[in-house]
Amino acid sequence: MAFPKAELHLHIEGTLEPELAFALAARNGVTLPYADTEALREAYRFDDLQSFLDLYYALMAVLRTADDFTELADAYLARAAAQGVRHAEIFFDPQAHTVRGVPIGTVVEGLGAALDRAEERYGISTRLIMCFLRDESAESALDTLRAAGPYLDRITGVGLDSAEVGHPPAKFREVYEEAARLGLRRVAHAGEEGPAEYIREALDVLGVERIDHGLRCVEDPELVERLARERVPLTLCPLSNVRLRTIDTLKDHPLREMLAAGLMATVNSDDPSYFGGYVGDNFDAVRDTLSLTPDQLRTLARNSFLASFLDDDEPRRER
Ligand code: ADE
Ligand code: ZN
After folding, report:
1. Which CATH fold would you assign to the domain 5-306?
2. Catalytic status, residue 164
3. Probe ligand 1: pick from 13, 15, 16, 49, max atoms within 8 Å of CB?
4. pLDDT in tens, 110-138
5. Active-site entry in 17, 192, 201, 209
6. For residue range 226-236, what is the model confidence (pLDDT) as tens digits?
7. Which residues contact 78 (CB under 8 A, 6 or more apart)?
8. Which of 15, 121, 124, 257 matches a 20 to 30 Å C-alpha distance to 138?
9. Whole-complex ipTM
10. pTM above 0.95?
11. Which atom of ligand 1 is nearest to the CA of 13?
């Protein structure tokens, strides 16, 4: 569906399509362990979050220069525009690049070159959110935040992603405190594979303004009541949940119940190249499978703008 919407949960590295991966591999002299794009697509069968992350990080080997990141972001923006995206808040994983010897400046400047002309070329306003890898140490996250210092004029906020279970939000208390001091907005993945308690911790310890995924809040009625009362946005990613087997089938997605409970749900694509669809495809899938009404679809689209950081002044959530 191509009605206007904002996308708030999108990992730019997760938009790397097999065709671009092979083109960049050839350009950069990287050998991929797949015969062709078909064989690579065949590998997109995941048992859980970790099995996806293993491939996601491995394929990043093809991203080396600022131009590579510009091309990656341009390809996403063109696809997003075709599906009605008017505003995109884009995650990137600096540590996944610095560990390979690609400096954070190369990543930010490369992405920034595409984002700078996104309004004019695609009619999309953008924000950039740097994510810390939660399966790395808190010290590494703090080092990454310091390394981002010269580029903070291009970075709106910080997030937390990668393997969730065993890496609770509280591990990153200090780095989020520092991010807040620097005036950065704060979000975190929580309740994707991890328990509802991680959602509470992300709110109470990290002071986040949005929860990425938050799916498992439905296991905790008291938390659902709180999230609804405080209007905490949840950036849901339905096709991602099916592909990573967080739910068995899309029919099992609790989106209708979440809307009925007054949760501020939004629909997003997460890693669209890997999970079978961009954000419009996610909207189509939930509309068809969960029989959403036009009113519910309008609410989801409206929520996406309300939950965005378009108004950059002050955190809007009151607690
Ligand atoms: N990094 C990229 N996609 C992710 C997801 N769905 N969960 C956690 N980390 C991620
Ligand atoms: Zn994600």
Report:
1. TIM Barrel (3.20.20)
2. no
3. 49
4. 999 999 999 999 999 999 999 999 999 99
5. 192
6. 999 999 999 99
7. 122
8. 15
9. 0.98
10. yes
11. 2
